[in-house]
Amino acid sequence: MLPEYGRSTQDLLAELAALKAGDLPVRGGKVTAYVYDTGRPEIHDAAHRAYAEMLEVNMLDPTAFPSMVAIEKQVVGAVADLLGRPGAPGVFTSGGTESIMLAVKAARDAGPGVREIVLPVTAHPAFHKAAHYLGMTVVPVPVDPVTFKATAAAVEAALTDRTALVVASAPSYPQGVIDPVAEIATVASSRGVPCHVDACVGGWLLPWLREAGADVPPFDLSVPGVTSISCDLHKFGYAPKGASVLLFSDPALRRKAYFASAAWPGYTIINATVQSSRSAGPLGGAWATLQSLGREGYLELGRTTLEATRRLVKGVGTIPGLRVLGEPESSLVAIAGSAEVDVFVLADEARKLGWFLQPQLSYAGIPANLHITVTGVTLAGVDALLDVISAAAEAARLKGPATVPDGLAELIAGLDLDALDDATFTELAASVGIDLSGPEGASEGTAQPEMAIVNAVLDALPAPTREAVLVRFLSVMYG
C-alpha cells in the first residue's frame, strides 16, 4: 500500500529486514541452490558498490551512456577470452534464460521457416520457455540412463529440415555432467544447423576446474560447429544477480539476436536484449567482481570447489540408502534415495537443521533426487554438510516416505484446473494436508514449509499437470 506521507530510510530498511527474516540465507553455504558465495565478503562488497554506482545508468541507449559500452566490452571480452574465442562478439544479458532466449531467436531468424529445437531431456527449461515465446517446437531426445549424457546418435536421429538449433549442456543442471559437445556439434554442422552450448552454469567454472586438475572435455567456442554459448556470471562468476553473457561464433549471428524498430514517430529502437530500458547496475557489479577476483582468485575458488565436490561425492557414497547419480564433471551433485530413504522427506529434515537441499522430481526415467550446488564457500562446511545429510537420511528412514493418498494423483490429473478459482484450489490443497493459506504455505508451529508431501504429489503427476498445478500455486501465493 502507498503511505499517505513519505517514510524515513531508517524505517524502510527496518521493514525490509523484518520481511527478509524468513528468507533463506544468501551467505555461508547452507543454501545449496539459487545463491553463490565466494566466502570473501570484500568481493561482494566491491560488487555492491559498483552496482549502486551504475544503478541509474540506462542501457537503453548506448550513445547516451558510453560508460556502459566500455564496461560491457570488457566483461564480454573476458568471457570470450576464457571460452575459446578471444574477440568473439557477444551480448550482456540479465541471466541464463535471456541469453538462451536470444540464442534461440538468433537461430530462428538465421534460418527462416525452421522452427524446431533439438535438445536433451536434461536441457534447461529456459529452452522450452524460449520456444513458447518465439513460436517454436521442442524436440526432446533421451539421455543415457547411466551417464545421463546426450548422445550424438540420438541428436542426429531427431534432426529434420525444420531444425533451427541443436543444444548441448556443459554441464546439464540436473546431474552436473557434460554432454559430448564436440560430437553433437559435428552432427549439427554436417546438417548446416547452429549448435548452442548451454554453459550458463559451467561457462565460468569448468575452465578453472580444468586448471585445478579436473578432466574437462572441450565444450566452448573452440569446438568446431559450436555457434553460440551462454555463460552466467551471477553463478560461478559470483557477480550479483542479473549478469550473463551470450557469445556468438560470428557477428552476423549476433545481429540476428538484435531487435530494431523505426516504424513509429518516436525515438528509434535498437535493443541487444529482450529488455529495452534496463539498469546498468548488474553490469557494474559483474565488472567489479571479475576485476576484484582476477585469474588467481578464480583459480583458487576452482581448487576449493573441486576439492569440496570430491569430498561430498565420496562422503555421500558412505551413507546407507543414498547414491550420487552419474559422475559429476562440474560441481553440481544429484543425490538419489532408495525405498528406505525418501529424498523429499530428507530435504525437509535437512531444512529443520538449517540447510536447504533442492528437490528434483523424477522425469524421463531419471529418479527423484536432491541437487547440491558446490560453491567457493562449501569446502569450509563440507563436513558439516555431510553430517546433516547423514542425520537427515536417518531421520527420513525412521519417518518413512511421504505417501500420496490413493487416487489423488488421478483425481488431480483429471481436473480442469483452469475452471477452479484460487480459493477452491486452496481448499483442495488443504484437504490433502497442504496449507497454502499461511506465509509460504508454512505448517502451523514451524518457520519452514513441509514440502515432502507437495513434492510427492507433484512427482506422481505427468509433467503437463505438474506445470498446471505450479501455475495455480504461484497464483495463490501472490493473491
UniProtKB/TrEMBL annotation:
One of its GO terms (molecular function) is aromatic-L-amino-acid decarboxylase activity. Keywords: Aminotransferase, Lyase, Pyridoxal phosphate, Transferase. GO terms for biological process: carboxylic acid metabolic process. The modification N6-(pyridoxal phosphate)lysine is found at K235. The keyword Transcription does not apply. Its cofactor is pyridoxal 5'-phosphate. Belongs to the group II decarboxylase family. Sphingosine-1-phosphate lyase subfamily. PANTHER family: PTHR42735, SPHINGOSINE-1-PHOSPHATE LYASE 1. This is Aspartate aminotransferase family protein. The lineage of its organism: Bacteria, Bacillati, Actinomycetota, Actinomycetes, Streptosporangiales.
